[in-house]
Specification:
- By secondary structure, the chain is α/β, with parallel strands linked by helices.
- The protein contains 8 helices and 6 strands.
- The strands form 2 sheets. It has a 3-stranded parallel β-sheet, with helices on one face. It has a 3-stranded antiparallel β-sheet with strand order 4-5-6, with no helix packed on it.
- Strand 5 and strand 6 form a beta hairpin.
- Helix 2 packs antiparallel against helix 6.
- The chain is elongated.
- The chain starts with a helix and ends with a strand.
- About 6% of the residues have low confidence.
């Protein structure tokens, strides 16, 4: 999900090309900025402010934890850390990844969020700021749909926000089909303890010895 899709792509390419991993390998990405996101150009101060507003107003954002909130207050850096800065739309690292990677192994999901279609998971002020940053494009409030579908086999566009991919029935079905739940093995038969009489068809088993039953 999100930036994790880029990390997984890098790991998969390294696994296959550098380590020579022979098994068939597939990857699903959800709202991953394969082509970057305009939010990365806003800088660390703007993103930290959005985090604070969303947490303070809503009271709970799925991606927020007390530790992240504390970090957003204390580390109000003017620039983004390298792992976030790489998601700029003009990122050379992303361009190289998209040029060198194997899109046939990746299935990608993106979304077109409708403000009237349901809750986004963000606070009101954050939601407004995100809509402004994404003006004029289809997006999930964080990643443009075109960016999310840029690399890999594009799946049908969803209508959720960036935080709600895994509540979508299509996503849940895809994951279920990709990693089916194991079928529990039937319980082993319970052996008859010695000395117990048990009837089986035309025989009676007594202490493990089958004795024919006399028919009248």
């Amino acid at each position: 999900h999100s930036r994790g899709g880029l990390v997984a792509r890098f790991a998969m390419e390294k696994l296959i090309r550098a380590a020579g991993f022979a098994a068939d390998t597939s990857l699903f990405t959800f709202g991953s900025p394969h082509g970057g996101t305009p939010l990365a150009a806003m800088g660390g101060k703007a993103l930290n402010l959005m985090w604070k507003l969303g947490e303070d107003i809503v009271g709970s954002i799925p991606i927020m934890t007390p530790l992240v909130k504390a970090y957003s207050y204390l580390a109000d850096a003017p620039a983004l850390p390298p792992g976030i800065d790489v998601m700029r739309e003009d990122s050379g690292a992303l361009s190289m990844m998209n040029h060198m990677g194997d899109p046939t192994r990746v299935s990608c999901w993106g979304s077109r969020f409708d403000i009237n279609g349901g809750p986004s998971g963000f606070g009101v002020e954050v939601e407004g700021a995100l809509l402004g940053a994404m003006h004029g494009m289809s997006h999930d409030l964080v990643v443009p749909a075109a960016s999310a579908l840029l690399f890999g086999n594009a799946q049908p566009l969803l209508n959720c926000s960036h935080l709600n991919y895994f509540g979508e029935p299509a996503v849940r079905a895809a994951i279920q089909n990709f990693v089916p739940l194991p079928v529990p093995a039937p319980p082993p038969p319970v052996p008859t303890p010695p000395g117990i009489i048990r009837r089986s068809g035309d025989f009676v088993v007594i202490g493990g010895v089958r004795v024919p039953v006399r028919k009248p």
